[in-house]
Structure formats: C-alpha cells, structure tokens
Fold these 3 entries.
Entry 1:
Amino acid sequence: MTLTELARAAEEIWAQWEKASGGVKTLEDLETARIQILGRKGRLTQLFSSLRDLPSQERAEAGKILNALKERIEEALAKKREVLAQGAQWERLARERYDFSLPGKWRPLGKLHPLTQVRLEIEEIFLRLGFDVASGPEIETEYYNFEALNIGPDHPARDEWDSFYLGEGVLLRTHTSPVQIRVMKERKPPVRIICPGRCYRRDNPDATHSPVFHQVELLWVEKGLTFAHLKWVIGEFVRAFFGPGYEMRFSADFFPFTEPSAQVHIRKKGTEKWLEIMGAGMVHPRVLEEVGYDPEEVTGFAFGLGIERMAMLRYGIEDIRLFWQNDLRFLSQF
C-alpha cells in the first residue's frame, strides 16, 4: 500500500463513520459502530497495522494521517455519546413523569384495636385522678392469685374462677388482683394504682363470655379512706367515660377480698334498664394483714371492670366475639 492509497482509505473510513453514526439511535448502537472502526479488528486498527508495509520515509506522514483520523473519530464519538446520553435521560424522565393533578391512591391508615383504645382512655382517666399504672405477670402462683386475696384452697369462691393450670400451683391469672398484692408487698401506704391486663378463665365462648379477656382493677390504700371515697372515684370515672346524663347505684354483693362488697350499676337518665359495670368494695382486713399493713392504721378500696364490657356498653356491641374475629369491616368503625 502506498501513502496515497492509505490517505484514500482513511477518507473512506471517515465516510463510513459519518454514515454509521448518522443512523445511531442508542448508546448500544454507538458502541457497535465504534468497535467496527476502532476495535481490535476495526478498519482503522487494520490500517495502522499496514504502516509496516510502507517505505520508512513515508511512515511518519502516514502515521500523522491515521492519528489525526483517530482523534477526529474519537471527538465525534464523544459528542455523539453525550447527545445520546442526554436523550436517554430525557426519555427516562418523560417515562417517569408524575402528573400531580391526578387524584392520589387511597391507602388505609392503621389504627389501634378498639379494646386498646378503650384501655388507654380508662388509663388516662385514672392517671388524671392521680393513680399510677402497675403491671404484673400473666403466669401466677396460687398464692398471689388466690390465697393472698383471702381465697383459701377450699374456698367456694374458687369455683367462680375455673382456672387454666400450667403445673402444680402455677396457673394463668384469673384476674389482675395479684398485681395489687405484689405492689403492696413492695410499697408502703399510700398506694394508688390501676392494674390493666389480660386474664384467663375456662369460659365457653359466647356472646358475653370469652376464655381470654381484659380487666382494669383499681386500688387505693391510705389512712382514713371510707366507702364514700370509693363512691366518689367511681362517680368521677362514670362521668368521664360515659359522659353526662348517667346515674349510678350500688347493690350488695360478696367478694372474698373486699368487705363490704358491692356491684355498681349505671343507667342513662330517663331509662329503666340498669347495667352492671363493675364489682367494688373496701379491701378486706385479712388482705391488708397479708401484705404487712395494719388494718387499724390504714384502709383501702378496690374495684375491677372488664375492658370488653366497657367497650360493649360504649359502642352498643352485643357480641364480644366480634372483637376477636379480625373483621376489618367491624374494626375500621372505631
């Protein structure tokens, strides 16, 4: 090959590049065109290899021609790559463009279970009245669940708490009253606590019973407390939870851990039906002695209410099982 032929071949390669780059639409096609000319087996690379066939006095001039062509192609390649990259970016932005005038997608927000909502509301009422929230284990011993509460091994009241036993002397607690014993053993009077928590009894599930349920119990032990203080606290709770327009009455009852004991009923003024909402009473002297308190020095009162019961009264629900069926049509109403 002569110098003239090499120069002509270089012009043909440039013409080939212009033709190929003119039809390139993507970066992938551009890379294919580059390889055809500048790759290891490309036309320009082969032309560089032919330099050794030229006379030595012509090689320097031929090298200048080929290097100039290579720089020209690489410069054009860089500009074309920039144009294609910018175009690809605009295409991607157009594809991912958001129309903020369109209505958004509705996504439901989670919320607390209605029983949790009611529990927190009850806690807030008593926190405002100066009570602390206390908790204890759900797996209890017979001592804390029964005996310390004046319910001996042969006491007939145990039949009312048909219990889930996990072993000798160990059971799932049947009420949250054991928390009261644990707290009183750790603190000196005055004691003002509420004990919310989960409880377990061998009840057959029906519209008003469940083997798993929730209670909130209250305990206030201090010098000089009377039944009148108990009535006042319950009255404040009824007004705060149910709102104005309700009246309250007490009827005699029996609980081993309180003396005297009572059931508390409410009704909306102007109606005839009374609804039982809780059991209450003055702490039994034997319970006070069991925790090391002197019944001659301090007195106390306690009451317990069911969270499910409160929720059913609040919302007019007649079947407790609705709380546990995980039906969003029901739960989303609260």
Entry 2:
Amino acid sequence: MKVIFAGTPLFAADALGALIKANHQIVAVLTQPDRPAGRGMKSIASPVKLLAQQHHLIVMQPQTLKNSEIQMQLRQLNADVMVVAAYGLILPKAVLDIPRFGCLNIHASLLPRWRGAAPIQRALLAGDKETGITIMQMDAGLDTGDMLLKESLLINTDETAASLHDKLSALGARSIAKVLELLPHGQLMAVKQNDNEACYAAKINKSEAAIDWHRPAVQIDRMIRAFNPSPGAFTQHQDWLLKIWHAKVVADKNVRTAKIGEIVSVDRSSITVACGEGALQITVVQKPGGKKLNVADFLTGNPLRPGEVFDTVAASVNAHD
C-alpha cells in the first residue's frame, strides 16, 4: 500500500520500521520539527526522522497541517492510507479525508479507556491490570474514532512506564502491520467506541511527581513506576530533593508508631519509609546533579538514619533533570 506515515518518538519509529519491513510504499514521513535538547540544547532530530533518513524516505516537518499548501502536497502523494503514531500535531478534517482508507492511529491503550496524551502513565497510576494497543480510524474527536483492531497485554506488578512503553511499542508495530495487510481486502470490522466507558489520560504535569507520604504505599509505588523514566517521582529531605527510581511495598511492624514519611529502617540495600498506609522500601535514588545510585552506594556519601522524615508537603516542582 502507498502509506503516509506521521509520528515522532521511538514508539512511532518502531511502527514505521514494521511498515518498511512489510514492504509498504512509504510515500512520505511526517514528523515534528527538530527540537533543542540536552545540556547543550542542540537541535535533535526525532527517532522517526532518523529512521526515515536511513531508508532514504521523503521527510516533511511542517509546523502545522492546517494550511492549504501542506494539504495540497499530501493530496498529490495519492496515498492509500495515513498511519499516525504519537505525531504531536492535530490532523484537520481536510487531512483526515485525503487518503483512500483515511487515517489510522496507533493508540497505546484499550480504547475507550485512556483517550489522550498519557495512556501508559495513567494506566499504571490507576493500577490497571491490563492495557494494550488500539488501531482506530481517526475522526475529528480526541481518540474517538471507530476501532479496527485491539490487542491486549497484562501489566506486571513491577512494570514501569519505560518497560510498558517498550512492550506496547512492539505490539503497536505488529498490530498496524496486521491491519494494513487486512485493510485492502475488507477483512476488518469497524467497531464504535462506547463513550460511557471513556476516560481521559491527561498529559503528565511534573508537579504530580511530588510524593505525598500520606498516600498508601501501594499508590506511591504506582507513582514511582509511572514516572520512570520521566519526570521521576521525588521527595524533599531537608533542603534538597531526592528522586526515587525503584521501590516496593513492604510490611514493617515499626510503621505502626512512625510518623508519616519517617524513615523506619536503613540497611545496606534499602531505606524503608512509613506511608499513610503501609511502608515503602526504596532501593534506587538520585540527588540533584548526581547519577542514579542503588541505596548502598548512595548512603556512603549521604547517610540517612531511622527517625529522619521526608517532607510530606508537596515538594517544589523544580525537580532536577
């Protein structure tokens, strides 16, 4: 099939790679303009652009798809379908109507659950037991189009946003390849979404990553996993912030008499903290300007003792990168 591909991050690059491998004719690749990133703020190409260049594909990086010039260029490509994955630009109706089979979106949830920008993180925060990929026919709404294919997977109890992203990225690539194989033959049935079952996966705000130790340990554990690798859950100790990258819920009898946020025990490999309900055993942390460290290495230069208390008030959102 003649395909226009629109996407930006690694999640989308995996899908583009699957379509290239399946020998579809990629007539153009749309991706976000290069952005400054890193400490030097150098202009960085997206993973989709880099992959497209490796395969000598036409790359287009418009600031918007709303002007008539870019729409005319897309029409002239005579594409059968446009595949969209984490692109980052709104597709107006004029663009949605261009390809013969319309525009298909690869969405990282089991729609209608978790429509919106951050379905992976929201699924983890909510404690969902499963998630998956939905390939849907795009319309003018936000992830409201008819569903062509749904593929599910279980969420492990130690799943992070990073590990779940990678699983869904691979699943999305396989799913869109399957859909494009079936689409020309009329072997897919479009299923309307039940709006009554919909919920919205709002974009993650860094302030959400500030740990409130009044919460149950189970919820804080979900936060730590959902915000790994970004923005990173953090707490405040004295006058500095501490990012927490790995922890697990544990039973500790000392919690019964401890203050909220109090360190109840410290050993060579972990720091155990009292929560609003239960306790959290922390094993990987990071100070501002430092590297991620296991607790054994961290405590060598940063001694923490039972009885010290992590700040339970929402910490400053200016957490270190």
Entry 3:
Amino acid sequence: MRKNYDERQKSFIRSCTMALLLMMVTVAIPVTAAETSLKKVSLIPLWSPQAQFAGYYMAAEKGIYARHGIDVTIMNGGPGHSASEYLLGGKADFAVLWLATALQHQSAGRRLVNVAQIIQRSSMMLVARKTSGISTPESMQGRKVGVWPGDLALPVQAFFTKYHLNVRIIPQSYTVNLFLCGGIDVASAMWYNEYHTIIDSGVNSDELELFFFKDHGITFPEDGLYTLEKNYRNDPAGAAAFTDASLEGWQYAFDHPDEAVMVVLRHMKTEHIPANRAHQKWMLDRMHDLILPPVGNKKMGQLNPSDFKSVGAELHRQGLIKTIPGFDDFTGRSDASK
C-alpha cells in the first residue's frame, strides 16, 4: 500500500515538473521572437552625450523604441564623428542636423528628409558684458566677436549683414574661456549651453547684454531629425516609428526631468565626459522651452513652413544654395511610394 502511494506521488511530481517546464518554454518563445523581430537602426547626434539629446536616451532607456518595433543604437557625435558624414556615408540611419546644414546638402544633390524638427525656435545668441559699452547691434561695430566655424557661423553672418556690421571676427572654440578672460568683446552662445556656462562661472546675468537672433528676425531652428530620402522611401513606416518613439522619449524626459538627467549623467560618465548635474538640468529645462511648441501651435516635432522658407531665403542670399527645395519633399509629406 505504501509503495503504491509513493509511486503515485512520484508520478504526480514528475507531471507537475513537466507542466511547469512546458509553461516556461511557452512563455519564453514569444518574448524571444519579439526581441529578434526588432528592426535595428542607428542614430548619431551632433555631439557627445548631454541633455541636448536626453529624449533619445530616454526612448532607449524606457523601452519606448522597442515598443515601436525598433532597436536603436545611439552613437557619439562631436569631433571626428560628423553627423552629416555618418548619415551621408551610410554609417547611421538617422542624424541630428541643423536645418541650414540639411538645406545645403539638399541643394548639393544629397537628398535628405526632415522626419522631425525637434528645436522649434533658435536658441543661438551673441553675449556681451555691459561694461564693454555694447548695448545695441550697432555698438558692435569694429569690436572683436567670437564666431564658431562652419554652419554655426551662418546666423551670425546674417546678423552682421542685417546691421551692416564690420567686426573683427575671432575664431571661437567650443569653450567660452576667451570671453571670460576678456580676449573678445562678444561671444557666440547657445541659450541651453554656453550662456549657462558663463553665468555659472560667476558672471551675474544682469551684467550681460544678450542678442537672441530670433529677436532680430533671424530664425535658424537648430536640431532636427534627418534620414536619407532613399531610406525614407524604402521604409516610411520605420521612419515614422523612429520619429514617434523619439518624440515620446522627449515627452518622457520632460515629465521626469530628474530621472532624465541621471540617465544623461550615466552616459557621460561611460564616455569619460566631465559632468555637471546643475548644468545638465539647465540644459534639459531649456530644451523643454525650445522643443515644446507654443500654445495653439501644432504638435511637437513639426517643421514650420515659414521657418523653412526663412532659412532657405537667407542661405540663397548668401550664395550657399542655388534653389530652395519643395517643402513637401523635404519633410517627406509627398507620396512615399515615389
């Protein structure tokens, strides 16, 4: 009798074990299949990790990209890692570029598509100390002005042209040290970056005279998301998934700023980049102001046709593009099957 009981007990245990193993296999299969079905794509920002790109890091961190069916590798931009070159050379599927940069490539026959305009209004400015006596654009005449090279100089040149300024252009590096030590009278700055570095160094904000280009009718929206037109035409749904997930990542970053800053700092530490929590928090707050559209405007990520025309007209005036491309083609709003 005892023997029969033991045999039944062993048989029951074996049955339960087999059932449990079968359940584990059944559960595991769809997860593995889902993971392997994610489409792998890559993104290269304009610079190394910082809060300027927090939305993309959060979209990856919180599984937002995966939920949209894509597995995104975020590369490092910056010196030696040109976002334009990586995109045009096929080393990256998507890139963060300035609108002015993309329009020049488009004019040269390197066809791109703006899948999202992230920054909605220009954050670039010129900064002067009030003690320098510079209080108006005209008072910059003949003064030493720090100017970044390449496309970053375009809005500055437009400002000089508008006010008929003949200044002493001094090449500016990616620090504001020359301005802080008095080597130049005026510095180029981004609201979300160099401006905060200046005031964080001990200069009070009321000691500074600020010349936001947007306040002077020079609207050069900066960061946008771009892909090659041929890639967009081949997979418009994939581009849409990447765009939607990226915008969702930005919204998550704005809704959870402390978490977003922590993630950015972790990425900076991994890349051995000096990190300042207060500066990254400032940067994220300013990105919030620059990315979210004004009340009553369209949803986040849309390129304003008037900004497109304004930048195109200025580039054409400066002889940097021959023609302004069609807005629908540039933004992928024309028939994707072409």
